[in-house]
Structures are given as C-alpha cells and as structure tokens.
Amino acid sequence: MPGVEGFMYPNEVELQWSVLIVLYPFLTGLVAGAFILASLERVFHVEAVKPTYRLALLTALAFLLVAPLPLQLHLGHPERSYEMYLTPHRTSAMAMFGFVYLWYLMAVLLLEIWLDYRRDIVLLSQSATGWKRLIYRLMTLGSSNIRERALAIDERIGWLITLIGIPSAFLLHGYVGFIFGSVKANPWWSSPLMPVVFIFSAMVSGIAAVMLLYMLLTWLRKETIDMRCVDTVASYLFYTFIIDFSLEMLDLIHRIYEADESFRSLDFMVHTKLYMSHIVVQILLGTVTPILLLALTQVLRLGEMARKRIYAVAGCLTLIGIFAMRWNVVIGGQLFSKSFLGYTTYKMGLVTREGLLVAIVLTVLPLIILWVLVKLLPPWPEKSSGSLPDAAPVH
Fold first, then answer.
1. Dihedral angle sign, alpha carbons of residues 301, 306, 310, 312
2. pLDDT band at 395 (very low <50, low <70, confident <90, very high)
3. Is 393 within a domain?
4. Number of domains forming the structure of the chain
5. Which residues of 38-62 are buried (b: 16+ CB within 10 A; e: fewer)?
6. Which residues share a beta bridge with 336?
7. Is residue 79 part of a domain?
8. pLDDT tens for residues 65-116?
9. Containing domain of residue 379, as a range?
C-alpha cells in the first residue's frame, strides 16, 4: 500500500483522528489564552492591557461557541452527543468535557460578559431602534437597574467570576493534554508534561491572537493603537512563550535521556515524516523566530512602527507554530505502528466531512461570530458607553 513502510496492522494504516481533531485543541487553546489575558486587567489589575479586556472576552466567546463543532463533525452520530449529559461517566475524560464546556460557557464566560456590559446594554436598549432595540432588551434579562450601587455589585461579582474562571480556563484546555498524556500505549503522547505544555501553549496562542485582533481592528477603525497596551501584551507573550518552549525542551530532553525502545522509531519519524511540520514549522519558524523577534523589542529601543511590524509578524508566526504543535501531536502520534517498525502518511481530503475545506470554514467561523459580537457589543469604551446618551437610572 502506498505511503506505508515496514509492518503495520490493518487497523493502524488509516488514521482515526483527522485535521478536525487538530483544530479542536487549537480553538480551545485560543479560548483559554484570551480569557487569561482578560484576567490580567480584572484580577491582577494590569491597567496597561485594559484596551484589550473586552475584546479578549468576546474573542474567547466567539471561539468557544465553535470549539465543539470539530468534535461534532468527527462523530459518526453527532445527534447522540446529548447523551453524555443524561448518562454521565465520571471515568471518561471525553464525557467530562461536556460538563466542563457548559460550566465555562454558561457559568463563567457568558455571565462575566453580561455583567461587564450590563450598563451598556441597558443604555443601548433605550437608545437603539428597530430590531437592535429588541435584541438589547432581551439581553437585559429584565435587569435595568444601573445605579451606582448596582454597578458596584456587578463589578464585585464579575471579579469573583473571573477569579473562578482562571482555573476553569486551565481545566478546559488542560484536560485536552490530559487525554493525550494518559494514553500510555502511545509513547509520542504519554508524558506527564503534556497537560502543562498544552496549557502554556494555549496562553501563548490566545495572547497572540488578541494582540493581532486588537491591532487589526484598531487600524480598521482608523484609531491610534495604544502602544503601551501592545508593548505590555507582547511582553507577556514573550515571557509565556519562553516558559512554554522551556517545557517542550524539558520534555524532549527527558525523552532523549530515557531513550526507551520507542525512541529510535520516534527519532526516525521526526527526521522524516514530521521534519517539515515539527522541526521547520513548529520549532524554527513558529517558536524560535517569534521569540527572537519579541526579544529584540525587549532589549532594543525600536521605533513605534518597527515594533508594530515585529508584533504583527511574531503574532502570526506564533499562531502558525502552535497549530503545527497541535498537528504534530494529533497526527504525528498516529503515523507509526505499535510495533515501531512501520509508518504511514496522512492524506487530507479537500471536500469531505473532515477535509481541508471544512477545517478552513471552522477556522473562519469564529472570526465571523466575533465580527457580529463586536457590532452588538463594541469592546471600545468610547464607542460603547461614552457616546451613548445619558439615561435616568431605572429600578
């Protein structure tokens, strides 16, 4: 059979997990990372990143709404997925995802966004016209009290929800790494560092995505980019990236030192099947290059325009590198046989249920949802509340 070397069992030749399973941890990572960035302002009082606070929340929501779709499309009978809520199994990591997802969506993210935007929603429900007025009125949920005391309560509850949301974000994405790391039969995945690496790589990708979106949307609005904000976000991206890369190198060194019976097979695969995606794209292009670019902005006094360009390039390369990391974990872990003697290749279809076209649609869909959210709930304070007419507080 073409694409197969050595000996493989018949059920090993065809990969069970496709590009959609690659896309799933990538999307959830963006959710977790964006929320962690938002928590810097709310919980840790990093005022410099305040311009990205609301945008980070909306970004997390947009990607969270799409995150389960790759899994749904991968299932043979997606209409049965609701059964995980009716017949929960505490020993199944995959089944527990449904409860973690609902908890994070309903009890954390949606509630925090509603509390943060409640004053704006009430004012917009009074000033908007047509169908928007109806939408804003529904979004008030019958709560129109925007007196100072009520808003102070909203602020305190929102702070508490964000505090709870930080470990929830770690749990949302860390469990993905746990699923792979707990597969003892696969030496490519079986590592206690896998959940930790997934968490830090999620923070890296989310911070990079919000930084890029902030710069792009501010440019499209023809407003001035807050360089103090972008510089601060980039510095957090830089230091988080260093930690993430250090953990990956620690895992690699441990594998080299251990050098069990699977090491020779995995080493051969990295230098052949995964050389381009792992060595070139993930490590050189998607990790080392953005770290060096961000390091330049930390040690050199560069002009504003130069820093903008470096941040844009570093952010794009970071997202490419994190996606490559997900690809190498999911696809790479299925390319070798259980006997460590045979190898296969992954051929991605173009127009299939789990093909390239579907993956592109699922990647673009969160951006479309984000565009709608930004239109309904502008993340820019001067646009969302400052320009609204004053309204009398309502009990």
1. positive
2. very low
3. no
4. 1
5. bbbbbeeebebbbbbbbbbbbbbbb
6. 343
7. yes
8. 999 899 888 887 888 877 777 777 777 766 777 788 888 878 899 999 999 9
9. 20-240+359-384
